[in-house]
Amino acid sequence: METPGLTVNSRHLFCLPWPPSLNAQYVNRRARVKAGPEEAKAYKQRVAYEVRLGHQVPPRLTGRLDVMLLACPPDTSRMRDLDNYWKLLLDSLKHAGVIADDSLFDHEEIFRGNPVEGGRILVSIGRFDPDAAGPSLNRVGLPWPAPSEAALVGS
User: Fold this and answer.
1) For all residues of the chain together, what is the average pLDDT?
2) How far apart are alpha carbons 90 and 143 in whole angstroms?
3) Could you tell me the domains of the chain?
4) Which of 17, 30, 89, 124 has the fewest Cβ atoms surrounding its Cβ within 10 A?
5) What is the pTM of this model?
6) Residues with Cβ within 8 Å of residue 67, at least 6 apart in sequence
7) What digits encode the pLDDT tens for the residues 2-13?
8) How far is CA 15 from the centre of its chain?
């Protein structure tokens, strides 16, 4: 039996079902077809159920957060645009009580894993460390943002 939520090195880990694509959530106005909202609602309920398996109480994380995903698709029969799964997954974590709000993520990464039957998303959530982010950005040639004036006034 899979463990729905663990804490390892101060990170919360979840193994969740493969979400429906965000593309299925759009309304095709020309064809007047509304596709997918029931599927999205069912997915949010399934995530909430899986988070609570084993009588787990969701952590309801707040503050500046970091999330990393390993997306293991159900098959390789078609190309999958991983960002089409991102928003529904984060909304589902909020619905399940894992996070207070999906706007709390200051760092988000997603990796494509090997296909598994039915597909799974492995989620790791921890505290965002701005001191560690600066050197990471510099390594890839990006500048770390300067502190805002409000932050400087408050210090």
Assistant:
1) 82
2) 27
3) 5-128 (3.30.1330.70)
4) 30
5) 0.77
6) 90, 105, 107, 108, 109, 123, 124, 125
7) 445 666 568 999
8) 11
